[in-house]
Amino acid sequence: MPANFIHICVDDMRNSDVANMPNLQSRMRDPGVAFTSHFTPYSLCAPSRAGILTGLQPHNHGIVNNKKDGGYNGYQHLEGNALPVWLTNAGYHVGHVGKFINSYDTIAPNHVPPGYADWRAMSSDFSLYTDFTLNENGTQVAYTNGEYSTDVFLQKVLDFIATAPQPFALFFWPNCCHWRAVPADQDVGTFKHVDMPIPPSFNEADVSDKPRKIRKLPLISEQRTKFIVNKWRVRSECLQAVDRALATLLDALQDGGLLANTHVMFTSDNGFVEGEHRIDNGKEFVYEEGAGVPLFWLQPGGNAGECRKVVSNIDVTAAMVEIAGATAGRSLDGRSLVPLLGDIEASWNHATLLQAGKTVGIATDDYRYMLWHNGDVELYDMTIDPFQLDNKAGRPEYQEIEQACAAALQALQGCTGGTCSWTGTFPPPPQRVVKPSSKP
User: Fold this and answer.
1) Which end of the chain has the smaller Cβ count within 10 Å, N or C?
2) pTM of the model
């Protein structure tokens, strides 16, 4: 029997948010493969989700915003040749529960895209946590009696697991913790007295080495800091319903004898910047907080551990196609993660492409390189500067590294298919001379 899939994608969740989700840690991160350098190709909802469903980089699927010519308006012409269709053609029973592509609710809320045997998608505003509507296999069903979105989605997921023929593939995409986040009633106030972790990059004191856009930002005021902390607390409270849903879902798979033959993946469409580098709100940045997102893969009887290779969410798409024995209807830009699922130290790419707003860049094993639309450049040595405080661009000792990163970015910006897998190498970080101690 081919393996089943459950792909869980939340909304606007940062890597640091994992610390507030005990079930996610104990039930998926620890017993699964944790990809600690996992990125979205474009740090924004619709472009990221379109990449998951097509396996393409943004410059190839063409969706670089949530509305206008992006969002579902841009995805419509792609949906007939996308992952759900490929899985269906391979004999899978495919379902979707939760949020879909932005603007679906305004462009085609009555439409059921091809490839889905069971469709339970939000057909009202995606930001609603109560008083929302689902398109349930072509019928509009309103939830207006105080039902909470994550709880409703969970029940749809449990019904799917209980009734779907195998092999199945389910896309469980909650709208949590999209701002303005609304926690479930039982979670309201549970983080009221919890301190928000404050990284060294929060309200960065010296931004003189940053691009012009960041240098123009004022220091975050005390009042605005309080707002950011409150937002973090509310988002954390909102995620508790997802954390409980995850445990219930895994219990249902175990009780139904399905867990031993099901791949469960957990990720987010993009991250969220909350005060780092003086950015008090946003996600369209290729800094770690915006582009880096969780990826935990719980696989049947497979390898577990922490994988530090740089990977992209479109690599997940390629892996699902390979594991399912499906045939993609186009050349995929992603590279299948199957080798890393078997061996976290397997030979792999050394860079992946990043994009957000007017910035492009790459993430490598050791560096982050960013090119802004006005020509400003950032280069960070992540081996010594994980919070991206010290821009190394223009430094003589990093000249060779900067040139190598620029060359890789230039090549990846126009990549297609296999050329999107960058296996070239980069110079090692400069040697650091440790001064001998003067103490006896």
Assistant:
1) C
2) 0.97
Q: How many domains does the chain have?
A: 2
Q: Which residues fall within 8 angstroms of residue 433, CB to CB, at 6 or more apart?
A: none
Question: DSSP secondary-structure letter at 282?
Answer: B
Which two structure tokens, joined as six digits, stand for 232?
Answer: 């973090």
Q: What is the pLDDT of residues 19-69, one digit of tens each?
A: 999 999 999 999 999 999 999 999 999 999 999 999 999 999 999 999 877
User: Which tokens go with 128?
Assistant: 């609603």
Q: For residue 140, give Cα distances in angstroms to 96, 109, 122, 143, 173.
A: 15, 9, 9, 10, 18
Same domain? 224 vs 367: no
Residue 406 near residue 415 (C-beta atoms within 8 A): no
192 and 243 co-located in one domain: yes
Q: What is the DSSP letter of 308?
A: -
User: Is 396 exposed, middle or buried, given 0-12, 13-18 or 19+ CB atoms closer than 10 A?
Assistant: exposed
Based on C-alpha coordinates, what's the Rg of the chain? 21
Cβ count near 373 (within 10 Å): 11
